[in-house]
Structures are given as C-alpha cells and as structure tokens.
Amino acid sequence: MIxxxxxxxxxxxxxxxxxxxxxxxxxxxxxxxxxxxISGSRTPAExxxxxxxxxxxxxxxxxxxxxxxxxxxxxxxxxARQWSDSTHTPRNAGKIGPSExxxxxxxxxxxxxxxxxLFDSTRAKHIQTTDIFxxxxxxxxxxxxxxGMSRTLLLLSDMINETPDVTMTxxxxxxADTWIKHLAAQRRIPQLPGVCVVVSGADVSSARGAxxxxxxxxxxxxxxxxxxxxxxxxxISNASEIxxxx
Amino acid sequence: MRGTVEKSSPSIxxxxxVDDLRIPQNGNGTSxxxxxxxxxxxxxxxxxxxxxxxxxxxxxxxxxxxxLGKGARAWFSRPKPNDDPDGNGVxxxxxxxxxxxxxxxxxxxxEARRLAAEWAxxxxxxxxxxxxxxxxxxxxxxxxxxxxxxxxxxxxxxxMQDAIQGGSAALNGHITRFRAAIYGLESNDNDRRAAERExxxxxxxxxxxxxxxxxxxxxxxxxxxxxxxxxxxxxEFTANFPVFRLLLPMDSTLTQLAASLGEAAESNxxxxxxxxxxxxxxxxxEAFVVALVAVVILVLLGKTAGSSARSIVAFSAKETPLAAxxxxxxxxxxxxxxxxxxxxxxxxxxxxxxxxxxxxQTAADRVHADSVSLQQARAAVAAAGTDLSKTAISAQREMDxxxxxxxxxxxxxxxxxxxxxxxxxxxxxxxxxxAAMTLGFVYKKEELSDKRGEHPMLALMRTKIRRxxxxxxxxxxxxxxxxxAAQNEVGRIHHLVQSNPLRDWRGKQERLQSVIxxxxxxxxxxxxxxxxxxxxFRQPLHIPLPxxxxxxxLRTPFELDQLLxxxxxxxxxxxxxxxxxxxxxxxxxxAGRQS
Lengths: 246, 595
Known about the structure:
The complex is a heterodimer. By secondary structure, chain A is of the alpha/beta class. Chain A has seven helices and six strands. Chain A has a single domain, classed as Rossmann fold, CATH 3.40.50. By secondary structure, chain B is mostly helical. Chain B is 72% helix and 1% strand. Chain B contains 15 helices and four strands.
C-alpha cells in the first residue's frame, strides 16, 4: 500500500515539478544508424576524427532519438557487432522531466562507452576486409520507415569495400553502372527510401576516391536514399551538419 | 469486743509443754498478704514413719514425687458431683480449719493410746493406789487438748478476719472497675456529642456551599490553540524528519528521482529551498509518514500530559471537601494519564536520541555497501569487454550505483552533522514537548460541580458514632458487672462480720474431753481389768476448756465505710451517665433489628 502511495505521490511530484525545468523542445525524432569502419585501410587520425564526430552526434541526441551503431561487416567468421537503443519519447510533448533528462544522459553515456568499444584500435589490426554492402543491408533493416521519424545513415568509413566480390582498392576494380542495374534488377540492393546518407572519412581528392564517390552516389540513388554531394566528405567537424538540411 | 474469748483459763503450770513451736506446714496458717497471719502451731503429732528415719533422702524424694503427682492429678481431675461445694461463705473459710482440728485431735488420741499402752505394760497406774492428782499422761493429754482448743479458736478468728479483709480488697477492685466503666461511659458520651456536632456542622456546610468546582481555560482562543499546535507540530517535524529520512533510505530509483527533482528545483531561485524540502518529504514517503506519526504522537502526548497536569494541580480536596471523592477519582485518572503520557514522550524522545546517536554509523555502513556495489558494477563493466549488450547493462548499473553512492555519501556527511548536534536536538525536542504541555495546560477546562457529593467527614463521623455506641454497650455491661460484683462483695463482708464461726465450740470441747476416757479405757483394756477397779481412775478428770462467746467480735475493715460511700456516689454517677448511653444502646439495638 505504501509503495503504491509512494508511486502515486512520486508521479504527482514528478508531474508537478517537471514544469520547473522549462525544457520545451518540440523537435522531430531522429533515428541515426551509424556504420563504423575501423579497417586497416584507415589511419588512426581518421579513426580519431570519426570517433570525435560520433561523440558529437551522441551529444546532440534528444529524447526520443534512436541510435544504432553497426560495425562494418568484416567478411570473416566473426559477425559484425551492433547496438541499437533509444530514449523514450517525453511523456508530455514538449516537456522533458528530470527523470527523462537523467535517462537521456545515461543513454548518451552508454552510447559513448559503446562507441569507445567499437573504435578499439587494437581490434583494428585484425580486420582484413570491409563489407560495406552487407553493412548497408543491415542498416536498411534498422532504418525502416517510421511515422514522424527522420532517418539518417552516417557512414564513418573510407567507403572502400574489400570483399571477394567487390574490391575497390583500384580504380579499375570499382563496379560499373551496369553492375548496379543488375543488382537492382535482381532487387539485391537494400531499400533506403527517405534515408539521409552522410559519409565521413571518404577519399574525395584522388581519382579513385572520385570514382568511388560516383559509384556510391549511384548506388544510394538506386537504394532510394538521399546523398547530397556535400554529405560525402572526408571529415565533418560539426555534428549539426549531419543531415540533409532540407 | 463483744465478749471475752476465754471466760476462764485453767492453770497449766503443772503441765509440761507438748512440743516446740514451729512454722505451720499444712498451709492453713500461712501469711495471707494482708498483714494477718495464723500463729505458729506445734508440729504435727502424727508419729513419723520408721522408713523415713532409715532412708531420709529416698523419703524426701518420694514425698516430692507424690506431691507432684497430686498436683498433676488435681490439674487434670474434675470435682466429683457429690463433692460439697465450698462457696465463698463461712463454711468455705472454716472447712480447712475443721479438717485441721480433726487431724490434730486424731494425733492426740493416738498419743493417748500409746501412753496407755506404755503405762499398761508397766502395770501403771497401780489399781490399788489412789492418786490425789491426775496421772502424768493425763496431764500431758489435757494440756495438748487445751492447746489445740486455743489454736482452733485463734485460727477460726484469723481466717474469718482475713476473709473479711480480702473481701474489702475485692470490693475496692470492683469499685475501681466500676469507676473506670463510668468514666469510659462519660468519655463515650462526650465523644458522641462531639461527633454529632461534627455531622451537624458538615451537613450545614454542604447545604451552604454552592461554589463552583472547576476551572476555565487560561488560553481561551480555539483558533490560537490550533495555530500554536500546528506550529509546534511543524517545528517538531522539521527538526526530526531528516533523521527519519536517513533512517529509512529510499531505493535507488527514488534516490535518483529525488536528485533529479532537486536539481530541477534549483532553477527556481528563492523557491528552491521550500520546493526541495517538499520534494524531499514526498519522495521519502515512508520517512514522512513515520516522522509525521512520531511528531503527532509527541505533540499529542505533550498536550495530554499538560492537560492532565492541570487537572492534578487545579483541584484540591481540602479546598472543596464536598467534592473530595470526585476530585480524588479525577486525580487518580489524570495521574495515570499523566504518567503514561510522560512515559510515551520519554520513549519516543529516547528512541529518536538513540537513533540520531547511531545515524552516522548507519549512513557510513550504507556508503560502504554502496561502494561495494559500485565496485561490483565496475567489475561487471570490465568483464563485459567488447560485448556491447553486456556493456550497456553494466554501464547503466555502474551509473546508478555511482549516483546512489553520491547521494548516500552526502547523507553520511549530513548524518555526522546531525550526530554532532544530537544533544542540541534533544533539548529542542524537550522544549517543544514542554511547549505542547504548556499549551495543553492552558487550554484545559473542567467542571466537577455536578459530581459534588456529601462531606467526607459525614461518613467518618457516622462510623465513629457506630463504634462509640458499640463501646457504650460494652462499657455499660462492664459497669453493671462491676457494680453487681461490688454489691455482692459488700453483702459477703457483712455476712462474714455477722457470722458466728465459733458456734460449734461445744462440739469441739466434747471431742477433746473424750481423750482422757480414751486413755483410761485403753490402759485398763490392755491390763484386762475394769477401769472402775483402778483407784487412780475413779476420780473423773474434766479438762478445763473455757466457754467461748459465739458472737465473735470480727472487725469491720476501717475502709469499708469509705468504699460504701464511694460506691453510692458511683451509683449516682452511673445513673446520670447511663441515661444517654442507654438511649443510644436502645436506638442501636432497634436499628440493628431493623437492618
């Protein structure tokens, strides 16, 4: 009986006291799917920049946002590690209670810990392959359309796929448009309609990098995703730039 | 002197003394304590036992044992129905003397037989020789008879005089008891009249006393009372709630919520303080309830103790004796409530004092337990390694444990502070309890006028009168008994004075005169001759025993007239005093019959 009374009074107190916070934030709920590539082709500096950007994104999260961290598929025996979690949407729209604020902070802390685990530099030495296509398939599963939720796919990768099927280590080995059409005809391209794609860590200065960028622009277009040219970058310093800006 | 004791005394210078003088041994002539005593008499003339002469020690032992046995038999034996009762008249006095006379006469007769035998053995006196004077044994026997006759006369006179004097002493004792009973009745009468006056005064006082038995509130405002009571409760609650908050910790969820609410309230500037306090109270609901109950109990007990104290000190049985019974009953009840309230307050304060004294240790233990939990959570995080799901759970647990530890660490610091000012808080609690008692004292009103009864003195006086009446009955009975005994004793004294104890003197003379013929007859019989043939016996021998005046001049005690006068006065006093007592006794008897 006392527990029930306690709960009722706490609820009342929480409801009554939440008003004092003043956190009025009628923002749109986001779902961020982050692909993390720590393959050996990336330098420690690039990994540090990606980690910094991910932490900045975590800091930018709001109540109701969902964050999914997906390790780039390695093509080996070990499955790619994934973690997906979200904070509950506010009980009262536009008002964030203390407990919700605390839960959001806890969520961010846990997300940072998970990011630190995924960016483990010692583990990067053992990764030999990068399966971006497989990662996109899994990302498509996480980024399924939801009502009132914007979806963003952030790829912290150099976008160089290295699997037995497709190896983009040289310009000539980059698949042509017919390959994309062939996959699309066979519906082997993951569907990402309405998903905003942001790439950070790609090579945009070399010819191979340009060819790779062209390939991915066509690929994401075939997937239905939105990849503006300004979202395909080598480095993003401001987390607020993660998005399609429309 | 109404007459001479001896009209003529024979010349006895020719006769020898029969025995030496000794102190009487038969108990009839011992000192009687009133200055008169029987004269010493000759020793017993009964021949002694030869065995006694051979074994004197054994004989003495035997005699003592026999006397002891006689005493024991007399102690357990009852008088036989055909025994002649002694009474307290002349017969009772002379009975033993007559017995003594017979025994002494028997001894003389035995002596006469012995002398006759001795003389007969020698053929004396010669039958053919005529003697001018009595033979020697006859002279001896005559002297002994004369001595016995004189002793019997003196003994009877002395015994009678002793009895008369004893009767006078007994009369004096009866008069003394009679006087004491009369004095007792008079005192009883005075006491009873005093008790009746007390009853009359108490009844008059009860009818006249219409004053109010009760008191009104010193502090009359009900609104003010409740305001002060609320202030006291709020102050007591504020002073003690933190202690209960630390004693009854919340779970981690509530702790985190409390912390979040506290942080959120900080943004409300000057309202942050009360808001934080209110949130704290509501979040620590169990502590809130317990503290509230404890505080309410403290204030209630304090107020009750104060109210009871007002009832105890406000009424006085001496000031309003008519309501004494109600006041005593009221005081008993309020004393019990007062003691119970003080005990309750003491127990609650003692509990809170003890709890505060241990609160720092309790908080420290809690911090220690939280530290262990945090270490375990951190170990779990480390063990999770690169397992993202385990890492998330462990990290959440670690953050919760960290926050709980932080909260409890703050509590521990607060507990140390509370423990340091524990005594000061106790004084504050005592002050607040005293304030509650004062509030209860000044707000109490009570009315006992409708419970007023009769004056308590009435019951006491009624009981006293009943006791006095009972005493009067006993005193009257004692007075009547003493007066009757005194009258009886007076009659006995007159009877003894006017009695003729020596009227049997002729019989005694005849018994004594028979001793000489006994001697002569026995002597002749042993010599187998006729006494008439003995010339010495032809002349009859008459022992010259004097005639006695039967009207013995027994002296009336010189104090008898005074005693009779005093008895007469006491009779009049008794008639005066017994009037009231008799009425009381009669009324008491009637009341007893009716009840």
